[in-house]
Amino acid sequence: MYCQPEELEVIASSKVCQKYRKGQIIYQEGNPALGLYCVHSGKIKVIKVGGDYKEQIVHLGKEGEVLGLAALIASSSYSTSAVALDDCVVCFVPRISFLHLLSSNSQFCTSLLKVLADSLHKAEQGMVHLAYKPVRERLADALLLLLRTYQLTNQTQFSIAISRDDLAALVGTAKETTIRLLSEFKDEGIITSKGSQITILKPESLAEIAALYT
């Protein structure tokens, strides 16, 4: 997103950065959107809790991303909650500073529209996958999403620590089903695991599985 130096100074002077421990809530569904959250470091899960109190992960946040944007622009309450997947640092920009930037910088507005459009597209894709893809294919998709989101540039083999509850919430299935399918992937030599750590050995095999129902 493009900002003038003086605009960056205003943001820098008004933002507040805070450390969050794994599992801490960054913002809560139903609370009013009072500002914008920018991920400085770490991993974030954005979740929606259904009527049965089951958690669904609707987005994975990473360094450099902004969270809570739609609610802030709409001057509404958050429709989701953001929770730290691991220890992270998140910066908060107050609503008044954000709105000032929005009203004075057309290029910034255009960039925000692109961010919102991309977010909407991903949400639509996620809904289609949940509706039509079998669970095995969705698990392959979820593992590839984790790889695309969090793999480091110089990382030749991708590993991530993620609880089976969180992985099940990302796939949209039961924890027991997730564990069973992970065992199948492990037997097929696609992944290996130790505790909560999952290492992807054959991303191309996951891509083939995920593409069976497209």
TrEMBL record:
InterPro entries in the cross-refs: cNMP-bd_dom, cNMP-bd_dom_sf, Env_Response_Regulators, HTH_CRP, RmlC-like_jellyroll, WH-like_DNA-bd_sf, WH_DNA-bd_sf
Domain of life: Bacteria
Listed GO CC annotations: cytosol
CDD domains the record matches: CAP_ED
UniProt KW keywords: DNA-binding, Transcription, Transcription regulation
GO MF annotation list: DNA binding; DNA-binding transcription factor activity
Domain Cyclic nucleotide-binding span(s) in chain numbering: 1-102
Every HTH crp-type domain range: 133-204
Record-given protein name: Crp/Fnr family transcriptional regulator
The organism of origin for this protein: Hymenobacter crusticola
